[in-house]
Amino acid sequence: MTEITGGPDVVGGDGDLLAVPVLADLTWGPGADVVAEAFGDWIEEYLERKDFSGKVGQVVGFPGGDLPYGEVMLIGLGDEVDLETLRRAAGTLGSKAMPYPKIVTTLHAVEIDGAAEAVVTGFLLGAYRFDSYKSEPKESKNVELVLAGGAEDAGIESAQQLAAAVGLARDLVNEPAISTPPVVLARRAADAMPDSVTVEIIDESDAADRGFGGLLAVNAGADNPARLVILRYEPDSADKSLVFVGKGIVFDSGGLSIKPASFMEEMKTDMAGAAAVFGAMKAIAEKGLDVSIVGITPLTENMTGGSALRPGDVFTAYNGKTVEVLNTDAEGRLILADGLSLAAEMEPDLIVDIATLTGAAKVALGVNIAAVFGNDEDALDSVEAAAKYAGEKVWRMPLESEYRPTLDSPIADIKNIGDRYGGTIYAALFLKEFVGDNAWVHVDIAGPARASKAEHYITKGGTGFGVRTLVALAEQVSSAAVPISRTILA
Ligand code: BES
Ligand code: ZN
Ligand code: ZN
Q1: Is pTM beyond 0.85 here?
Q2: How far apart are CA 430 and CA 175, in angstroms?
Q3: 187 and 218 inside one domain
Q4: 8 Å CB contact between 72 and 114
Q5: Are residues 176 and 237 in the same domain?
Q6: pLDDT in tens, 242-264
Q7: Ligand 1 pocket, 406 CB below 6 A?
């Protein structure tokens, strides 16, 4: 664990690595002026040779010379510095932190509101590692990050809570499916929550009694039983309420509409929506935000056992609607049908569901951007503002009512697939049937839930995408704790 503190300014401090920002065209950021002065003409020649001009994403390192630091790292911030630029720069630093016991930085001294929080968040996310299954994991030597010249403890603590929550989501996504069947995943989620969150775990017989038909239909082909986890964080003072619903398919083989082998490789990621809800609940409760949140996560595998759901089968969802299943690989919407119906019954101010729902979302937006849909303009605006503040990219898509008749079933109330094209829209239109009159936003994270390579604060594998947007949304709703303007800042 890296200890993070404020400390003396660059001149008065020491360490194994000093990391300072440089803005576009070699404009020295805070602390970089001290480095430039210490190295004189040499530094400009060196940086020219290295083609370093302070552009976003550029990094260069060299020995500390006469400075009381073992090495120096210059990090480019470009010409338009915002919170996300700082997070990314700090993420790059975090990703390179392992060899240095004590790192000193001035990245947070760039004058932007919330800079220290962004820097600590980025650093910790970039330093994230998942090595539980390595026989000889590489130990990080990094034990200390010092914010030179000091920083508010509140910003540091808030960032630590956020990074731990994203780390929880990443861990759960990175775990092999064999290690996290629904029973285990539910328990790990429960164990991660602070005391202010109450946890209800509904088992397979409760699920049958209560009519969670979608969850049980998908679970029919799996040997591991399903679970539905309900997390409640309900401070007395809260006058606003949110319900988060997360897709928790611990492995998606496609069921009898089986996936090709290469499409199945990454399908342990299919519980990333549930993981985002777990992470968000943990951070929101630890921060003590003044808003009621319920997290609902249906958890099951989608497998091909002898009693598996067949194409053509019909089940009854929690809200009483009957669903004809024509493709068993469109299973996420079936468990979300139950989750959303349960959320709708609670009549919160806003329901947000988050799910690795459609491959078509990746086709439409690429892997870095989540698709958002909703039935309420204000709610969509809030989620978009929260995502922007958090540095998570989302793009609004149309909930096209003219496409709805394509989901009509000849024998049931609705069928689970639409046309060949526009798959992300059909999935969203399907979900809309289960939210009643409540304000609702759907976030399809099929692309950004997993990263194929490390970059700035993103590490390869599970990204924890969505945790930071959901936390920012709760902050925005939470009485005056965080002014709305903060969401517009970035
Ligand atoms: N879990 C997948 C969606 C997915 C694909 C997530 C790739 C992440 C990466 C989902 O359950 C699924 O298989 N959806 C089908 C729906 C289709 C059968 C209508 C899809 O997208 O192909
Ligand atoms: Zn599927
Ligand atoms: Zn799926």
Answers
A1: yes
A2: 30
A3: yes
A4: no
A5: yes
A6: 999 999 999 999 999 999 999 99
A7: no
